[in-house]
Batch of 2 targets.
Target 1
Amino acid sequence: MTGFYTGRAFALNSLMINAGWMAVNREDVGSQTYWRLYIRAQKQDGSEGQPIQNPPWDLNARYNLDPIIYEAGGQYGSVPSGYWIDFTALAQAYGWNVYRHCPTGAIIMQARASLNSR
């Protein structure tokens, strides 16, 4: 049984990216790829979140009929304006671990085992 079925992992709908409510940053560490998720702050006056510093990964670029970009799983896009909440850092602060990406490109975060024993 996977973490999805037991409530220790979650999946995100890509419509949030298409609507401009979420941005995904690719982080390559050695030969592993990790993803940092940002959620657009509700208040855009600077009282919530902070500007994104690094260009996000454009997952939709895979569908532009360029085989090199398709094989890479996308390409870097432009840095979006506004204020963003680092969802990955927030989840880690609440006891979630980030795992490397799946072959399917899914972003996986799972709760630590110690939280499940409560």
Target 2
Amino acid sequence: MPEVIGIDKPAPHSERDERMVLSAILRDPSRFDEAAQYVRASHFYRDAYQKVFAAFETLVSEGREVHLEGVVDYLASRKELANVVSVRSRHALRAEVRSGFSHS
């Protein structure tokens, strides 16, 4: 849930920047450690992006590598894959990553 400022104003956010962070980590998993110094899953505005970043956090905490198949498997095992970036399949998530999580 986004932080609310004032009565009906959501906290400032940039979906484009959030997509870039997620895509950058999936393309180069070594970037996760640096990003995790500043960002937590709850910092993302969209619930789907929170779930993807939380998957990164869990994989790393379990000593597993952050890569697309691992994220897909993790989200599928939690029955959250269909909720992530409006995708309905592994193939669609791969396409989303390649396009930088652009919107359909």
